[in-house]
Amino acid sequence: MTQRVWIKWMAAAMLAVLPACVAYATEGAVVGDTYVNSAHPAINYGSLSNLYVNGNGTALLQFDLSSLPAGTTASQIGSATLKLYVNRVNTSGLVNVAPVTSAWSESTVTYATMPSLGSTMTSFTPATAQQFIVIDITSLVQEWVTTPSSNYGLALSTASGDVVFDSKENDETSHASFLDITVVSQGPVGPQGPVGATGATGAAGPQGPQGATGPQGPAGATGATGAAGPQGPQGATGPQGPAGATGATGATGATGSTGATGAQGPQGATGATGSIAVWGDGSDGTTTGVCNISGNTNWSASPPSNTLQCSTFTVNGGVTLTVPSGTIIRSTGAVNINGTITVVASTDAGQGIGSSAAGIDSSGGTVVPGGGAISAMFAYQLVNPGRAGGGVGTSNDITPGAGGGSLLIVASGEITITGSINANGTAAGAVSTISTGGGGGAGGVVVLVSNTGINNGGTITANGAAGDTGNTTAGASGSGGGGGGLVSLIAPSIIQGTINVAGGAAGSNGGETAGYGGGGGGSGGAGGSSGAGSTSPTAGSTGRVVVHTTSNPTPLFAPSLLLN
Description:
Blueprint: H1 3-16, E1 23-37, E2 50-53, E3 57-64, E4 77-91, E5 95-99, E6 122-124, E7 131-136, H2 138-146, E8 154-158, E9 162-166, E10 178-184, E11 292-293, E12 297-298, E13 309-310, E14 313-315, E15 320-323, E16 327-331, E17 335-337, E18 340-343, H3 376-381, E19 406-411, E20 415-417, E21 420-422, E22 445-450, E23 454-456, E24 459-461, E25 486-491, E26 494-495, E27 498-500, E28 544-549
Parallel strand pairs: 11-14, 12-15, 13-16, 14-17, 15-18, 16-19, 17-20, 18-21, 19-22, 20-23, 21-24, 22-25, 23-26, 24-27, 25-28
Antiparallel strand pairs: 1-3, 1-10, 2-9, 3-8, 4-7, 4-9, 4-10, 5-6, 5-8
């Protein structure tokens, strides 16, 4: 056997012992992810950075399988796992995975247009945040490979949990969901055919004759080397002379007296103050009841002793946080309002950001104006409302309409609202005896500031309240409605969503022609005037909504912000 034939035989033997089944991994990228909310059935959340899975929210995800080789069959899908990044676990609970069985679009789907779902195929329970969780969905991916037209994605839902996953739009952590798929070859490799015989080697052609080499001439003789002459003797070294004597060191002189100290130069100018810590220092962390509101909480009745400087701030779904007017909440991270924040209305004498106080009839039968509205310039520049909220409606003898309170939330991270924030005015007490009717309180002030972005998928409300109805028995004319409030959103990226700042309705004169009435409080909108005689009261005007997009909100704040 020739060496060439032996090498081919050994190669065939080595191929015969290779594995019959070869596997490799590929990834299915997410091409659509969003969630739908039964509490807000007409809102699309396709651009949000998180997927909320709770009692109201169901997440929808769809994946691209084009990375699979052409002709892949279901039997070649060795395994397929869904990998989700758990951002937060507000409440641990069982999450169900079900196939989506009809078409949907990330940018348009809402709860009202939610696609149909199949039966639950598997379930899992997220317990730890800030890490990936892995779910086996091999059988579902095999169905998609067999029938590609059935790949409408999958849905995540829960009856008891409250979990937040990253969406592909999340710029903070960038942990989009994906499928990890292992593909295997189908069936064993057939035997290799025999090695063909090696062809005969052709005969070598004759070699031509080599020419004769010419003769080399004889080498010449080398001449003899001459003898070296003798070396002369070295001269003797002369003696070294004696070293000279070293002179004596002179004595050290006395130290001179210290000179007088020179005059001190002028003090340099004081350096510029460092930037304000607008977002706080995060010293309250995620403390339950302060930065993580997991049950109904009333800070107006039982205020916390903390300074409300959170690392993240969350109001969980289904709970209400009640706060007094003037509350400021700071967060070095994200803010998530999944439940409800209610700002308490106030009848304090100094309450109200309106440009003027509402009038009151002191003589009977006189029309008096409501409180004035703030200017557009003031509304645009207001970043720290302080204790002042909506203006108070006026009355001499009954409880006046309270003005909606003020709330400021500042966060370095994203502010996301899927629940609601309410800062509404209230109506005056009812007229029952001879007295002056009361004007409605104006809507309050809500200012949200983020260094990242604001996504309002819920509602923000700061409505004015209705004015009191006149009463001939009590001698009171109808009163004006309160003006709508002010809502200001300041961030680099803003999704405004649903915001209500309606003015309060006017009360009727109720047949009274010479009674006493009051004006409605002013805020973002003006308060309505009272009625008198044949003149009917007027409603409060609509408030203001300010959407201020800026890459860096911090220069808008004065140092006094840290003192409130």
